């Protein structure tokens, strides 16, 4: 295996543009050689910015590019299934952003294609590569807080996305769109999830009602071990981007996450204050870099994927079950989905 791996990026939107920069400048193992986007202008602009030898207006041609060894999928979730199956048929290694897709049937089709073609697939869940969340996992496994018995996750965005995006047919709904990160961390820390009960409402932005989604939701979790959990997600964390987790153990408690962006506290007669994390690029930039580096290093060393396609499916399964619970107002057995 050559020291640098030829990478093709599919999707040059908001996250894709960030990934292009990371792959071009910050990941030694990567050689970004091509980009594809269904909006040709975006692909062309990205290729020009990073002096890439070629760009495509569709994923088929990029996946078929004989010089490309590994694919990074940062395209719209609705297109993940088609892209990943196509890449698998071309025998490319694949990294796919979360959520794996919006449909459990589609996710299982993707797994079948991955297994039948014997390709390397790694699921994107960048919080596992955040230093704080990773340290939390290490301390839980080391028994620092005894037995972990209660999990709490909280994700609050500073503002909502567009109404078009918020339509469940595009985003999957707030639980699938936002809470899937917390669900993955919950599973990572506590084990598989047995049942869920979700409640939610439109409380801050009345216009969201027309989309059929909510802007605040709370999910109660029961893990297979019998331990408990709770996740809350909000579109109206107007003070900043607030991502946290807490694990209560029999011998102590861990708290992961932070709100203050700059390590300075201003104390005057008018009050005590500090700045906040603006949004996800600032909060998880280093984690995104570490995640992509890990993907390519695993390919180079022929190691197992750090986050598997089964992890992606399990998180989606819980999110789908929780969304069903929200809509039906009932406790849901996750295994039924």
Question: Can you tell me about this structure?
Answer:
With 337 residues, this protein is an alpha/beta fold. The protein is built from 11 helices and 15 strands. The chain has a 7-stranded mixed β-sheet. It has a 6-stranded parallel β-sheet with strand order 3-2-1-4-5-6, with helices on both faces. Strand 13 and strand 14 form a beta hairpin. The two termini are 40 Å apart.
Write the layout of secondary structure elements.
Elements: E1 5-10, H1 14-25, E2 30-36, H2 40-49, E3 54-56, H3 59-64, E4 70-73, H4 80-89, E5 93-96, H5 104-117, E6 121-123, H6 131-141, E7 148-156, H7 163-166, H8 168-171, H9 174-190, E8 193-201, E9 216-223, E10 228-234, E11 242-249, E12 253-258, E13 266-268, E14 271-273, H10 280-300, H11 309-328, E15 332-333
Parallel strand pairs: 1-2, 1-4, 2-3, 4-5, 5-6, 7-10
Antiparallel strand pairs: 7-11, 8-9, 8-15, 9-10, 11-12, 13-14
Helix pairs in contact: 1-10, 4-5, 5-11, 9-11
């Amino acid at each position: 295996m050559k020291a640098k791996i030829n990478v093709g990026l599919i999707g040059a939107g908001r996250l894709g543009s960030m990934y292009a920069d990371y792959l071009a400048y910050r990941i030694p193992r990567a050689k970004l050689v091509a980009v594809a986007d269904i909006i040709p202008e975006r692909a062309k602009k990205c290729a020009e910015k990073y002096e890439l030898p070629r760009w495509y207006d569709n994923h088929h041609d990029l996946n078929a590019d004989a010089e490309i060894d590994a694919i990074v999928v940062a395209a719209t979730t609705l297109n993940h299934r088609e892209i990943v199956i196509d890449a698998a048929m071309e025998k490319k290694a694949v990294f796919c952003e979360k959520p794996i897709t919006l449909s459990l049937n589609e996710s299982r089709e993707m797994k079948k294609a991955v297994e039948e073609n014997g390709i390397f697939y790694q699921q994107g869940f960048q919080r596992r590569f955040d230093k704080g969340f990773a340290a939390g996992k290490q301390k839980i496994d080391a028994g620092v807080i005894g037995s972990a018995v209660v999990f709490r996750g909280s994700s609050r965005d500073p503002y909502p996305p567009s109404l078009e995006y918020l339509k469940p047919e595009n985003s999957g709904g707030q639980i699938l769109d936002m809470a899937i990160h917390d669900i993955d961390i919950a599973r990572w820390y506590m084990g598989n999830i047995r049942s869920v009960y979700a409640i939610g409402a439109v409380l801050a932005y009345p216009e969201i009602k027309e989309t059929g989604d909510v802007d605040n939701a709370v999910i109660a979790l029961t893990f297979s071990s019998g331990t408990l959990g709770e996740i809350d997600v909000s579109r109206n964390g107007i003070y900043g981007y607030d991502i946290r987790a807490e694990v209560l153990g029999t011998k102590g408690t861990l708290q992961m996450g932070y709100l203050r962006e700059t390590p300075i506290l201003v104390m005057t007669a008018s009050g005590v204050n500090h700045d906040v994390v603006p949004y996800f690029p600032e909060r998880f930039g280093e984690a995104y870099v570490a995640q992509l580096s890990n993907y390519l290093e695993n390919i180079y060393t022929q190691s197992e994927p750090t986050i598997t396609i089964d992890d992606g499916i399990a998180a989606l399964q819980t999110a789908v079950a929780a969304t069903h619970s929200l809509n039906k107002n009932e406790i849901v057995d996750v295994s039924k989905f």
